[in-house]
């Protein structure tokens, strides 16, 4: 046993020891946030046990009726679907792992689940069929934990007192000073896949948390040649919290450092444990942020997702090379690949649950570039995408990808009675309406939304409380809409390169098909209440809800009978063009440029001169083209916050800038020749500091610099009191009209899908 690393932890917020357990819970539930070679974990089972005692461990094995009697007296087992660990609810904002036992689900009595009971009996009564270290879908690992822990406990004192001492943090042969209750967790560690790294077998390990002694011990499980599962003693390690003279320490200990075997994935090198994991645990332990989000990929199988994502990534990676849009191809391609992988697994598991054979149909509302529609359609799901504006990339997909240009407004014309799923992937103003459209399309229609921009029913979303982040509050609003529409709404975190990665899913209803009429009245009342107008005029009865295109999906086993055809047709025609809520504005077909690029040139030049004048401390700027001949040091000016600059500008200028995205900050960043904006402050750019940076740029950027060389007049040469800080031959901008070069038009490569 050896301590391989120790770090002192400053705890000004008095969060320890609770913060330590929250940090450990993150490492248990989401190790991929620290170890980038892992895809994630599956928390399989947990039990609370007493500490193994030497006198108990030394007894001969119990067999026959006594074994059954002992099994009946064991603590209850349960599968983990929420957080774990003995820590409090405060912890780093990385997952739900920081929840304490008071927030966990109640334990299920043993034998309640017949499949689990059968598996337990098989493992306990059939020594020839031990638990496996590798994991397959459909295993019953709660019973595995019961069997594995009993075998490990009996072996401790009799055959390995050193391990018992390692677990207790005491000398070999001694017992804990006070009886401890251990929290024992069985988890499956899932390695990440890659094109050059085939999917490695998931590994299982037992994690032993001793709250009283402040230790967490990781016991990896391995399978020998005869199929027996045992603890791999060479790779056992422990995280320990200790206190000395009011100072806290976190340590990492390895049971057999001389025999440690590292595979670089599940079993990292000891140096990584010390330099990376120990540092993260120390930081997480004193972070007081409270998690408001679910764990990543909590609603689907991580193993299936990993395989599917890697397959899709390899299949559609060439899209990055031919991307014709101005958006970042890597971000959008791999984000849509990840969303498609998630939906494919979600739908595959739904077909298994419902006993369906046909693949689900879908409509993507506000489909944008259409790549998600293209992937889902190519993978066999019938569907289409609708967006108000056609994209250039649509022409590259081929006829099998159905994309339509058109505006979606929330009325009876835009219902989808024969569609299984409605998708809203960054659907902006349509996001809160998608649960409503799904609910009114048919009883069998479900929805998936990935909210990004904050929109209400008739415009920008208005915050109602400040105790939550705006993102968390908006997610709760969309969830509230789904509940008001009669859906059971589930939340999950996707694994995508975006800060807005929480999705909301409505798969089932809270009411029976017969209650559709009264439920739709409640929807109408809720929507009107969110608009801020009375439910109905004073003294009048509430207006009846508009008729729907179909109350049930044709042929759907749960759908009610269709209403009278003539009555439905007449009502639909009467209200076909009537919005469900007045004030809704669909996105404009022609996307308006609001990045300050279309502002008048004289207005931009005026603002630039005003801000430069402020930064140069009021020194007079040149209005002609001749720089000052003074030999004093070049004036690089000071630094001001954007708020300070805004206070110095007149009201008309500010109102004009507020109509642009980013306002003043965007305008200053657009004029990067003059200004540098960093961390909310702006200062004059010193081009003497830019030369070394340009030399380190990638080849593509250096080529752009050479193409733009001397194609624009140097602002400093024309306006700065001291002229340009660089000589004419070293400045990338022209010192006077004589140096100007005509701009070069880059040749565009032909895109082929």
Automatic annotation (TrEMBL):
**Compartments (UniProt record):** Cytoplasm
Biased composition, class Basic and acidic residues, residue ranges: 100-116
Gene Ontology terms for molecular function: tRNA(Ser) (uridine(44)-2'-O-)-methyltransferase activity; zinc ion binding
Q: What does the UniProt keyword field contain?
A: Acetylation, Cytoplasm, Metal-binding, Methyltransferase, S-adenosyl-L-methionine, Transferase, tRNA processing, Zinc, Zinc-finger
Instruction: Return the Pro residues bias intervals.
Output: 535-548
- Check the record and name the Pfam families matching this protein: AdoMet_MTase
Question: Region (Disordered): which ranges?
Answer: 78-139, 529-572
One biological process term from GO is:
tRNA methylation
Residue spans, zinc finger C3H1-type: 708-738
Please identify the protein, giving its name as recorded.
Answer: tRNA (uracil-O(2)-)-methyltransferase
* Species of the source: Leptonychotes weddellii
């Amino acid at each position: 046993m050896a301590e391989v690393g120790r770090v002192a932890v400053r705890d000004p917020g008095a969060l320890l020891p609770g913060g330590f357990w929250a940090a450990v819970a993150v490492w248990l539930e989401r190790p991929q946030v620290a170890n980038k070679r892992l895809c994630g974990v599956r928390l399989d089972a947990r039990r609370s046990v007493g500490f193994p005692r030497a006198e108990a461990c030394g007894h001969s094995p119990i067999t026959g009726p006594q074994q059954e009697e002992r099994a009946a007296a064991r603590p209850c087992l349960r599968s983990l679907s929420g957080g774990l660990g003995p820590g409090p609810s405060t912890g780093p904002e990385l997952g739900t792992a920081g929840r304490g036992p008071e927030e966990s689900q109640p334990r299920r009595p043993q034998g309640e689940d017949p499949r689990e009971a059968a598996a337990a009996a098989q493992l306990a009564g059939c020594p020839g069929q031990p638990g496996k270290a590798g994991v397959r879908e459909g295993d019953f690992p709660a019973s595995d934990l019961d069997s594995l822990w009993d075998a490990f406990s009996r072996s401790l004192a009799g055959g390995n007192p050193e391990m018992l001492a390692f677990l207790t943090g005491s000398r070999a042969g001694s017992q804990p000073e006070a009886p401890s209750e251990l929290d024992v967790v069985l988890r499956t560690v899932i390695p990440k896949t890659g094109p050059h790294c085939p999917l490695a077998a998931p590994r299982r390990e037992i994690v032993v948390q001793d709250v009283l002694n402040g230790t967490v011990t990781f016991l990896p499980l391995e399978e020998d040649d005869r199929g027996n599962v045992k603890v791999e003693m060479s790779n056992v390690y422990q995280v320990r919290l200790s206190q000395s003279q009011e100072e806290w320490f976190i340590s990492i200990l390895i049971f057999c450092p001389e025999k440690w075997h590292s595979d670089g994935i599940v079993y990292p090198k000891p140096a990584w444990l010390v330099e990376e994991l120990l540092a993260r645990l120390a930081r997480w332990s004193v972070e007081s942020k409270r998690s408001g989000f679910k764990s990543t990929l909590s609603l689907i199988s991580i193993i299936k997702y990993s395989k599917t994502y890697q397959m899709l990534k390899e299949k559609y990676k060439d899209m990055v090379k031919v991307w014709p849009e101005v958006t970042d191809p890597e971000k959008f391609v791999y984000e849509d690949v990840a969303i498609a992988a998630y939906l494919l697994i979600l739908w595959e598991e739904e077909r298994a649950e419902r006993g369906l054979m046909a693949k689900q149909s879908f409509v993507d509302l506000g489909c944008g570039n259409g790549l998600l529609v293209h992937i889902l359609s190519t993978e066999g799901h019938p569907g289409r995408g609708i967006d108000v504006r056609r994209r250039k990339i649509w022409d590259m997909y081929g006829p099998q990808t159905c994309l339509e240009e058109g505006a979606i407004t929330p009325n009876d014309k835009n219902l989808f009675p024969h569609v299984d799923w409605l998708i809203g992937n960054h659907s902006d103003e349509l996001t809160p309406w998608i649960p409503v459209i799904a609910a009114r399309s048919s009883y069998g229609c479900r929805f998936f939304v990935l909210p990004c921009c904050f929109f209400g029913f008739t415009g920008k979303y208005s915050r109602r409380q400040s105790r939550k982040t705006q993102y968390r509050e908006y997610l709760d609003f969309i969830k509230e809409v789904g509940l008001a529409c009669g859906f059971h709404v589930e939340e999950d975190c996707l694994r995508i390169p975006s800060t807005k990665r929480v999705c909301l899913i409505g798969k089932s209803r809270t009411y029976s098909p017969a209650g559709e009429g009264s439920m739709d009245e409640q929807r109408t009342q809720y929507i009107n209440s969110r608009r801020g107008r009375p439910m109905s005029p004073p003294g009048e009865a509430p207006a009846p809800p508009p008729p729907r295109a179909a109350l049930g999906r044709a042929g759907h086993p749960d759908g009610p009978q269709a209403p009278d055809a003539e009555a439905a047709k007449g009502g639909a025609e009467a209200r076909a063009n009537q919005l469900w809520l007045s004030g809704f504005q669909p996105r404009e077909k022609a996307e308006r440029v609001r990045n300050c690029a279309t502002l008048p040139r004289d207005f931009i030049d005026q603002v630039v001169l005003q801000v430069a004048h402020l930064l140069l401390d009021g020194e007079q700027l040149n209005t002609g083209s001749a720089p000052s001949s003074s030999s004093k040091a070049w004036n690089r000016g000071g630094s001001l916050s954007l708020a300070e600059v805004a206070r110095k500008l007149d009201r008309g200028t500010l109102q004009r800038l507020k109509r642009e995205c980013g306002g003043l900050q965007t305008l200053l960043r657009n004029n990067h020749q003059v200004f540098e904006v960093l961390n909310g402050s702006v200062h004059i750019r010193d081009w003497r500091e830019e030369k070394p940076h340009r030399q380190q740029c990638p080849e593509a950027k250096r080529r752009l610099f050479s193409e733009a060389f001397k194609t624009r007049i140097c602002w400093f040469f024309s306006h700065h009191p001291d002229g340009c800080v660089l000589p004419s031959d070293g400045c990338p901008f022209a010192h006077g009209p004589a140096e100007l070069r005509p701009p070069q038009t880059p040749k565009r490569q032909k895109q082929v899908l």
